[in-house]
Amino acid sequence: MTLGSPVGPRPPIHLLAAEFDLVAGLALVAEHRVPLVAALLLAEIERAELHDVGDMPSGHVRLNSRVTFLDENSRRIREVQLVIPAKANVAEGRISILTSMGAALYGLGDGACISWPDANGNERPIRIMGVEDPPEE
């Protein structure tokens, strides 16, 4: 299975260096429970460009970001907040980074498109329509 946008290579990924160890650790712990998601998430963070808070480009999905995206298969627009598993609540719009969709969104920039396997292994092209940076903590 090849990951990428429907029209080209995978878009660049930009992450906070401070989140790298946390997210990698979550993925490693989840390898036995959700092996595909863990492997895809680890592959994505390995190719990411890491930034300090001061030089992180705005408009890229990180933990606690609010994201508006288009599922190009269903043409459905969704707005979610990307969170760690303990804070996930789908009914309240908070999705875990350890879900297929959460792993797909992580690090993408506004306007980026990527084709990603859904929970059933089917390719699902998604396009980022907007990213709201999380409030500074």
Q: Could you explain how this protein is built, in words?
A:
The chain has 137 residues and is α/β, with parallel strands linked by helices. The protein has one domain: Chitinase A, domain 3, CATH 3.10.50.30. The chain is 23% helix and 28% strand. It has 3 helices and 7 strands; from the N terminus they run βααββββαββ. The protein has helices at residues 17-29, 35-46, 100-105, and strands at 14-16, 49-51, 66-71, 76-83, 94-96, 113-117, 123-132. The strands form 2 sheets. The chain has a 5-stranded mixed beta sheet with strand order 5-4-3-7-6. A two-stranded parallel sheet has the order 1-2. A hairpin with a 4-residue loop joins strand 3 (66-71) and strand 4. Helix 1 (17-29) packs antiparallel against helix 2. The radius of gyration is 14 Å and the shape is globular. The termini are far apart.
